[in-house]
Structures
1.
Amino acid sequence: MGRPIQPPPPHPSGATAPNIPARFVPNHVAIVMDGNGRWANERGLPRTEGHKAGEAALLDVVAGAIEIGVKHVSAYAFSTENWKRSPEEVRFLMQFNRDVIRRRRDEMSSWGVRMRWAGRRPRLWGSVIKELEDAERLTKDNDTCTLTMCVNYGGRAEIADAAQAIAQEVAAGRLDPRKVSEKTVAKYLDEPDLPDVDLFLRSSGEQRTSNFMIWQAAYAEMVFLPEHWPDVDRRSLWRAVEEYASRDRRYGGAIDKSAESADIP
């Protein structure tokens, strides 16, 4: 029998999650943790210090997700495009992601967090893969919230890899190309059982998806935070959820108000 699940510690300010009906709380929040480098530059610090400061922000946001009822959080930790950065920064980010997973795994597991990994294996350090797979294995039975760490991940890369796998199935005669559908593609994504993104959250004022979960976020509501990632905490997430809850999600449908009025006796 595993350890009993404990709630995350409260926010130091004493703030508590807003009371939002469960049906208006997003099931899956995808997060682009942007602005670490700019946060550090504004303070005359090396970019690496911004990444270090961002660790606490992620932990606090996961705590806030649990408190408000979000079941899935996906965090863009290292993209397929991040290899273009300086060798020094890439080396730091590899070591940092590895160490964060090792350092925070047990704490998040005590909250009931299941940790998963989405991304490509090629080029990724073996030690990083080991920590990600260990975290997946050790937390697989947790069900309070799922944190998907997206490391060496890119939305286009994910779709290209799925297309390649489908093509191999067709070539082998195991799949009829005429039966390939959106459901088929979804089955070959990195985490096929990951639900669609409801809320896409990005910090630091930038307003773009940057190749993150472009398949899963096709109908996501976008919220862009002005603050850099190290300045984000669970209260930022709660404000974004309140914004999400106020929106009318139609998924391509529409309501004809004039026709609706005509039906009123």
2.
Amino acid sequence: MNLTLKVWRQKNRDAQGNIVDYQVRDISPDMSFLEMLDVLNEDLLRQGQEPVAFDHDCREGICGSCNLFINGRAHGPEPGTTTCQLHMRKFSDGDTITIEPWRAEAFPVNKDLSVDRSAFDRIIQAGGYVSVNTGGVPDANEIPIPKSIADQAFDAATCIGCGACVAACKNASAMLFVSAKVSQLALLPQGQVERKTRVENMIAQMDKEGFGACTNIGSCAAECPVGISLENIAILNREFLAAKATSNNLA
């Protein structure tokens, strides 16, 4: 396939960015989207031009690094698919493809298509953990957990932290991400120690990072590549209300 790419180029955080047109030729339909970008960068290097910066790591749909906005959709046109698992057969010969980074105040652009998602890391550091006393601690699989609860916690734990929910939300809200992390631990016995402080601290950090409010549009869940459910936001709201009702923090 021969394609026209309209790629966002931005030298650094402080620079003014713009869309630049590129042509790529003889693209195999079996290539992944990132492999297609590799071909583009090889062409640019041969021409003595600077390659396009973009984030990637595992290229197996696990790490969540491949955060690209493709033709106006997070991770591209294929539902339930990360950018690295999106194949070029989803496009046609002669197509024009617009490629942009995530657009959110809390995700500043580092360079070109690469964004800084460390805000998610700071939210996790604020409360996304459990206490473990070393010594005679029973194995996790020795604690009886109903299968329905275990399955629900596992589904929440599949969040890969890619940020598609933020990119798809008109408010740049991180509620789906935070709710998945809170639900994952609040549902399990191991997560009960920090249950109240966790939800308070993580929401406070989310607000501090500059993410927007949730207005229940549902675009986050619709674009999530691993299918995180909106039910987790309901769980998050319940956890937060319960924590504030008995909290010493009156802020």
